[in-house]
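Researcher: Go.
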Amino acid sequence: MSDNENSESKKPEKENQGTPKEDERRFLIQKIYVKDISFETPNSPMIFTEAWKPDVNMQMGNTAKVLSEGVHEVTLSLTVTVKLGEKTAYLAEAQQAGIFNISGYDKKALSAMLGSYCPNILFPFAREALCDLVTRGGFPQLLLSPVNFDALYMEYLQRSAKQAEDTESKH
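Model: Structure:
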């Protein structure tokens, strides 16, 4: 062994100053599943005779709840409404959920995991479920663009901070 390798291996470990050590952190996907799914075609079969120039609107949200210590359920909800002019071609909804074992993270990091990291894992599953529903409904394949959950989470934090600030200034 060289001197450099030997001296590097003998470096003292940094003291834990209130934050979990990296090797104490744990993140495991326990289960991913469809919690709820819905598909409606209120104007079929006549909608199939119209020219396909869709107006696609997607609404998204997520929730997290503690199931037990270190075990969290995160649910990503997607609602896609597709219209042709004023007529609704279809409405597809999916609640894609996952059970995650997460421990060893401080409150701020845990919040980010639940609000950004977990939904990022769930999104491809929800996208696939919705695409499958739409094609089974007789419509062209639905291709949803990737979502930047990190940016959405940061916007959420900024809105929450602004609301807290506004509430404090009113008192």
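Model: Residues 22-139 form a domain with the Bacterial Protein-export protein SecB fold (CATH 3.10.420.10).
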